[in-house]
Amino acid sequence: MNLLESIPRKDGFRMPAEFEPHSKCWMIWPERPDNWRNGAKPAQEAYSKVAEAISQFEKVTVCVSHEQYYNARKKLPPRVRVVEMSSNDAWMRDVGPTFVVNDEGIVRAVRWKFNAWGGLYFPWDKDELVALKVADMEEMDCYQAPMVLEGGSIDVDGEGTLITTEECLLNSNRNPQLSKEQIEQFLKDYLGVEKIIWLKRGVYNDETSGHVDNLCRFVRPGEAVLTWTEDRNDPQYEISRENYEILSKETDARRRRLKIHLIHQPSPIYVTEEEDSGVDFSERTHRRPAGYRLPASYVNFYFARGALIVPVFNDPKDKEALRKFREILPDRKIVPVYAREILLGGGAIHCITLQQPLGVRRC
Amino acid sequence: MNLLESIPRKDGFRMPAEFEPHSKCWMIWPERPDNWRNGAKPAQEAYSKVAEAISQFEKVTVCVSHEQYYNARKKLPPRVRVVEMSSNDAWMRDVGPTFVVNDEGIVRAVRWKFNAWGGLYFPWDKDELVALKVADMEEMDCYQAPMVLEGGSIDVDGEGTLITTEECLLNSNRNPQLSKEQIEQFLKDYLGVEKIIWLKRGVYNDETSGHVDNLCRFVRPGEAVLTWTEDRNDPQYEISRENYEILSKETDARRRRLKIHLIHQPSPIYVTEEEDSGVDFSERTHRRPAGYRLPASYVNFYFARGALIVPVFNDPKDKEALRKFREILPDRKIVPVYAREILLGGGAIHCITLQQPLGVRRC
Q1: Which residues of B touch A137 (CB under 8 A)?
Q2: What is the pTM assigned to this prediction?
């Protein structure tokens, strides 16, 4: 693995959309008992179900500590690859590399600076090496981007457009020394995009400072989904409307107006007393006490090859969301996976997965 | 990775000879200061030189702890892959899997039981998972062999013959519950060999209980090299002669008489006061105090693609050994690497490397 000092855009590399072909999916095995209740056993079961679902469509590699290696190996299906890799928690989307590709089919990695979502836990010494280790394992060269960023805070259409939120990327807990223009330039340089669409706030109570991957995602060039509610008393109401206003007026890098699909959120989900009581106390992690509202959203899905893996919450709204995804993506198999246990730890299916694109040679 | 309960021989698998084509070479990064002097820095430099030499001929993957990952990545050449993998020391030959192949080009792994060479250190909890993790990373199915064995204690010609020592395989510190016949049967079952040649004792003072890879190795079917001395006062004299007697009378699996090349050992090498003083004290490791005679041998070489990587010791005998190897293997590039720092930790180049064979389809 070469550590590259050049810039992906200048080298002809760009970040492909998640709906482009993958070579594999990366995940990290959850284990810390101060973030995951009951010794992380319910979370491990939930992650296993996600890995099992995705591995029906593409290869999956799960990274795990030495201590949990044998347990993870036994609990995951044989077709899932399990490799040792230390981390501080289990959010591959945010700690892994961003993969970029060129027209010759070469895939490279971009490693961002990482500060645990502006300091949600401490330390993050293991997480900040994950991107490098993934690139090394795959024998890929790796760029080092000079700003803090998590993969979940951006989404691209693969045709030059990036969508993100001001709440996250302009937050003083990320890159306070950089101006909006400097951040735009780094996104353009390291992801090969031309146009950045700035939404305002992310999903209500999303502790990531409003990652866009829980709020709004591209489903194909020119089309996106936005999490939504019709309940005027829900704090999400105003957030979604404000973002909808922006999206309905914006154009993408190819000057298309965007088609926006609204996906109604599940009913509000709150941490129960029982759930709270299973989490170890710690001074160094973000606590979600009983009664805490969790940022549930169907938009936190993962595109696998030929499929869409969608978080569901055993909620009456699940059905409507799945029906909508079937309409929007008629050529994909829509696969629901129950995600409450992942949500209890701070995210959902997109947050715990990371696609590695297939390098495709373009004539 | 499937954990297989069947037997390689019955599935049509066999262990290829090391001189057959490789897909890559595996190593482990040394770091424990109670085995390697001066915080393992001289050993890391020596291992890096071995990795660098081999990586000119074939791919090399070096496994390393999280703590040493960044250091190893910076110190090893970019063309070497570095992956996180916990271990108790740095002897991939002995803790890694034995790879077996079939005629369809499929490669599988065999995992042996491991007890740290009969208990040279404690614990060995990390080492005993290395074989599984290597197989998992390579997406190979893995057999579990029901006996203690290290890769360095056997050598095969790829045509049905295995060579080993009684000192090691029949030692009460390995498999005291198994008879010689049972051990032979497991070797036949798990390595696909038909004939076992039993040598007596390994190299003098070899703490592995006399691993054959420091004593005698196949260089092609029907031909082997044996470490040797003409000094009648050296304890190695009797050992080498006794083994030569056996070899000169034996036939291999194809009923060939063996051609034996004698490689004169280097002058005796002793641990110096300075070397000894750089090693951390520990109750749980094997100590090699000042004045301790080290089991130096040129036979502890590694076959890389088109090359032979040979340990040398800055000894007058180096030249003679290299000349002999050039004669015996005229089509290979003979590459010497200074190995005293590896020897100080208990082995040499073959001990710290492990070839992964290329699966080759045979019509």
Answers
A1: 81, 83, 137
A2: 0.97
